């Protein structure tokens, strides 16, 4: 199960791309990119925090579930 949650049937705009986290796709016209679950979770986290600087620890905690005592 993803650690990141988003509103059901959400679509996010990323520049010219349309990001559909429910279907793990990034689409621009005829171009479709299939995403892994981790790639999806990273993009959802960033889309839900627009304009904010994200530090490494916050991303590791939100996407991978790492605590402050975990070293990578």
Task: Describe what this molecule looks like in 3D.
Helices cover 28% and strands 21% of the residues. It starts with 11 loop residues before the first strand and ends in an 8-residue tail after the last helix. The relative contact order is 0.19. The longest helix is centred in the middle third of the chain and has 11 residues, at 37-47. The chain is an alpha+beta fold. Strands 1-2-3-4 form a 4-stranded antiparallel sheet, with helices on one face. It contains 2 helices and 4 strands, in the order E-E-E-E-H-H.
Any descriptors?
72 residues, alpha+beta, 4-stranded antiparallel sheet, 21% strand
Mean pLDDT: 89
Widest β-sheet, arrangement of strands: 1-2-3-4
Distance between the termini: 22 Å
Specify the biggest β-sheet.
4 strands, antiparallel
Structural class estimated from helices and strands: alpha+beta
Order of helices and strands: EEEEHH
What topology emerges from the helices and strands here?
Blueprint lengths: L11 E3 L2 E4 L4 E4 L2 E4 L2 H11 L8 H9 L8
Brief overview:
With 72 residues, the protein is α+β, with helices and mostly antiparallel strands. 28% of the residues lie in helices and 21% in strands. Strand 2 (17-20) and strand 3 (25-28) form a beta hairpin.
């Amino acid at each position: 199960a993803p650690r990141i949650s988003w509103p059901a049937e959400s679509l996010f705009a990323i520049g010219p791309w349309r990001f559909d986290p429910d279907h793990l796709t990034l689409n621009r016209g005829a171009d479709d990119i299939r995403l892994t679950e981790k790639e999806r979770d990273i993009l959802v986290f960033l889309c839900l925090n627009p304009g904010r600087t994200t530090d490494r620890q916050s991303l590791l905690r939100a996407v991978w579930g790492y605590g402050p005592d975990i070293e990578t």
